[in-house]
Amino acid sequence: MKIATWNVNSLNVRLPQVQDWLQQHTPDILVLQELKLDQDKYPAAVFQMGGWQTVWSGQKTYNGVAIISKEQPQDVIVGLPALPDDPQRRVITATIGGIRVINVYCVNGEAPDSPKFQYKKQWFEALTEFVRDQMAQHEKLILLGDFNIAPTDLDCYDPEKWHEKIHCTSIERSWFQKLLDLGLTDSLRHRYPEEVMYTWWDYRGAMFQRKQGLRIDHLLVTPTLRDSLQDVQVDLEARAQERPSDHAPVWAEFAL
């Protein structure tokens, strides 16, 4: 089974790239973040005509998440129960092929001294509570998406420059660790403990060409999926296309 995540940074712009990627890689599940489309503007029919099933939670201009899969998603939950009034569309959960899939576009936070950083803290607390509850119900679970956290200095091209800056602060890394402490495994680090692999590169300054990025897109898995993990890769070719997202797709294969 092949499961992938991709922050597309506007599905309206990147739809042809997503269609090509689906055709080329034929994943069982692809989750998207940053759709930047209203609920009624999501191109469900385009995916369905290609033989895919899809569920989504859209939001104009910002946010938005979707799941695209070969099998019909079941038992769909939108949002986080602990934040019922949150207007930001950042989470969609479904069961596909016996796997509980939680697709997240985590809060950026802007800067440690920003009010948005306090929202990020509250949001991660709500996410952790939700994941704990879902893990109690589902042995096979994957939490994946854009976390907006680089978990260690290995996941950052210049640790000194980024020290205690957004995405790389000690407190953000502690929030990420709390998710792992639930019993989840960072699949890429499980497979490649010491590899330098980034998933996001700033558009400015030719950062992709200079290989200066951050690893902020992750696939966290329960022990059953960890034990069946075969490989994890970052698709650099997708990031090298014309008019790319600033994120690359990340995929994992499981012997299921």
UniProtKB/TrEMBL annotation:
Pfam families with a match to the protein in the record: Exo_endo_phos
Enzyme Commission number(s) of this protein: 3.1.11.2
GO molecular function annotation: double-stranded DNA 3'-5' DNA exonuclease activity
Necessary cofactors: Mg(2+)
Keywords of this entry: Hydrolase, Magnesium, Metal-binding
SUPFAM superfamilies: DNase I-like
Residue ranges of every copy of the Endonuclease/exonuclease/phosphatase domain listed in the record: 4-247
Ranges in a coiled coil: none
PANTHER family: EXODEOXYRIBONUCLEASE III (PTHR43250)
Entry protein name: Exodeoxyribonuclease III
Species this chain originates from: Neisseria montereyensis
